[in-house]
Automatic annotation (TrEMBL):
<dbReference type="Pfam" id="PF00672">
    <property type="entry name" value="HAMP"/>
</dbReference>
<dbReference type="Pfam" id="PF00512">
    <property type="entry name" value="HisKA"/>
</dbReference>
<feature type="domain" description="HAMP">
    <location>
        <begin position="185"/>
        <end position="238"/>
    </location>
</feature>
<feature type="coiled-coil region">
    <location>
        <begin position="255"/>
        <end position="291"/>
    </location>
</feature>
<keyword id="KW-0472">Membrane</keyword>
<feature type="domain" description="Histidine kinase">
    <location>
        <begin position="246"/>
        <end position="463"/>
    </location>
</feature>
<dbReference type="InterPro" id="IPR003661">
    <property type="entry name" value="HisK_dim/P_dom"/>
</dbReference>
<dbReference type="GO" id="GO:0005886">
    <property type="term" value="C:plasma membrane"/>
</dbReference>
<keyword id="KW-0812">Transmembrane</keyword>
<protein>
    <recommendedName>
        <fullName>histidine kinase</fullName>
        <ecNumber>2.7.13.3</ecNumber>
    </recommendedName>
</protein>
<dbReference type="InterPro" id="IPR050428">
    <property type="entry name" value="TCS_sensor_his_kinase"/>
</dbReference>
<dbReference type="InterPro" id="IPR036890">
    <property type="entry name" value="HATPase_C_sf"/>
</dbReference>
<dbReference type="InterPro" id="IPR005467">
    <property type="entry name" value="His_kinase_dom"/>
</dbReference>
<dbReference type="InterPro" id="IPR003594">
    <property type="entry name" value="HATPase_dom"/>
</dbReference>
<feature type="transmembrane region" description="Helical">
    <location>
        <begin position="12"/>
        <end position="35"/>
    </location>
</feature>
<dbReference type="Pfam" id="PF02518">
    <property type="entry name" value="HATPase_c"/>
</dbReference>
<feature type="transmembrane region" description="Helical">
    <location>
        <begin position="164"/>
        <end position="183"/>
    </location>
</feature>
């Protein structure tokens, strides 16, 4: 599978294109060398034959037919290996001299005078079959003369060159393919490192940075630019978060005082209308305090990371306790509230944080599901994971907004008329991240109206290996106190 993905990479395709261009260039070069080499050797053979013909013609002019016959016989006697081929015949092809007996088949007439034939028994050849090339012309007096050369070695040499070219092309293609694969593999590895790091950063690990090799090449420059961009983004995000957290922290104390004063006023006022107005003011103050407490809680969770007090927790028992707490609220809206809790599903986590996450999701399901709707809470084991799931038949979340609902203060358009501050799912996301969990949003009844919403939280199941990471004592004590004081205030967020 990795090989197939490697072959689909742009770097390998680029290397493959380079290989094709390189192989084509090598092929054209070798073809040119072969053409020039083979052409030169063939021309050299033809020149040798022409030189012998010229010598024989000179002998014929000086000594006549008898002298021509004599010189041919002398040359045959001096050439025991028969590199040169001779045949002199009369007009009716009766042999007068030469080292073959008859004319090669189909060669008694030729437009160019040049023929290629095989030396075998058909021409009276006594040795092994060999390839030959010759020229035919007529001598004055009706005689016919064939002068040629054995070109078996030349033909074998051409075959050797052709074989060498074929092997050379094969080796070139193989090396080019191997080089392209290795080059693209190295490039793909570096790109994969950038992609993997980028994916982890997108999943919330903003402290990660893309590693560099110190070579100052293009990839190092790209990594450095991305790292600088991430540093700037984190700096701006931290600035915004610090401002919002500071505002929430600074305003919580005066709001608490204001709320207490309003409550004292509520006790002291005798007028029913005034008591109603003060009561509404107290409720608004409580809502503001709940919002600020949720903001500070999310900030502490995001800052603390995995330093929560991890203990082995029975997820099904924890969900059962939360369901018992919210069943009465579902009964008030005449909703069907079902539970499917697999026993013995254990996880390692912070009990208070997990309870708040579970409570938030169940509370949201009840809040956004109309009367007579249905809600189902599920706990099950899925392989090495523990799954907590809440299904409802409420208004649901549009697909294009499912990725945005975990942002602070973000509210779906359909739910803006309902109470809430848009921080509940942000808190759920922060708790899930601490417990290495993943959240999936989907429609309960796809294609129907309303579609409902199914929230699935998958966390690693407890395997017997403790992974507790200790928090600073002072911070842990403060967190515990704050968690207990704000758990009920943020559960309806």
């Amino acid at each position: 599978m990795k090989l197939l993905s490697q072959l689909r990479t742009s770097s390998f395709q680029l290397a493959l294109l380079y290989m094709v261009v390189f192989a084509t260039s090598v092929f054209l070069l070798l073809a040119f060398i072969y053409w020039r080499t083979a052409g030169f050797m063939t021309a050299q053979t033809d020149e040798t034959i022409e030189a012998e013909i010229a010598g024989l013609a000179e002998q014929y002019r000086g000594r006549g037919v008898n002298g021509l016959i004599t010189i041919i016989r002398e040359r045959v006697a001096r050439d025991p290996n028969a590199k040169s081929i001779y045949l002199l015949t009369t007009d009716d092809f009766l042999k007068l001299a030469g080292n073959i007996e008859t004319w090669p088949g189909g060669s008694r007439s030729s437009d160019t005078g040049w023929i290629n034939f095989t030396l075998d028994s058909s021409v009276g050849w006594q040795g092994p079959e060999r390839l030959a090339r010759a020229r035919i012309f007529e001598v004055q007096g009706g005689l016919k003369l064939l002068v040629g050369r054995d070109v078996e070695e030349l033909t074998n040499l051409k075959r050797v060159i052709e074989t060498a070219i074929n092997w050379g092309m094969g080796i070139t293609l193989a090396l080019a393919l191997l080089g392209g694969f290795l080059m693209s593999r190295g490039t793909t590895r570096r790109i994969e490192v950038i992609n993997n790091t980028s994916r982890r950063i997108m999943n919330g690990h903003l402290s990660l940075r893309i590693p560099t090799r110190g070579t100052e090449d293009d990839f190092d420059q790209l990594a450095e630019n991305l790292n600088q961009m991430l540093d700037r983004i984190v700096y701006l995000m931290e600035g915004i978060r610090h401002v919002s957290d500071s505002i929430a922290h600074d305003l919580r104390t005066p709001l608490t005082r204001l709320r207490n004063q309003l409550e004292n006023t509520l006790i002291a006022v005798d007028n029913d209308e005034a008591r109603e107005q003060v009561g509404r003011a107290v409720a608004e103050a409580d809502q503001l305090l709940a919002t600020f407490n949720a903001l500070l809680r999310i900030a502490r969770l995001e800052t603390r990371g995995n330093s929560a007090d991890m203990k082995v927790v029975s997820l099904d028992e924890l969900v059962s306790d939360a369901c018992e707490l919210y069943e009465a609220l579902a009964e008030e809206k005449e909703q069907s509230f079902a539970q499917s809790l697999e026993q013995g599903v254990m996880i390692e986590g912070d009990r208070d944080l997990l309870f708040q996450m579970i409570s938030n999701l169940i509370d949201n399901a009840i809040k956004y599901t109309p009367e007579h709707g249905s809600i189902q809470v599920v706990v099950r084991r899925d392989g090495a994971g523990a799954v907590f799931e809440v299904q409802d038949s409420g208004i649901g979340i549009p697909d294009d907004e499912k990725g945005q609902v975990f942002q602070r203060f973000y509210r779906v358009g359909k739910s803006r008329s309902l109470p809430g501050n848009g921080l509940g799912l942000s808190l759920v996301s922060a708790v899930a991240e601490i417990h290495q969990g993943q959240i999936l949003l989907s429609d309960t009844h796809e294609g129907e109206d309303p579609p409902g919403l199914t929230v699935t939280v998958r966390m690693p199941a407890y395997t017997g290996i403790r992974k507790r990471i200790k928090a600073a004592p002072a911070e842990q004590a403060e967190e515990t106190q704050n968690d207990r004081s704000s758990s009920t205030e943020t559960s309806s967020a």
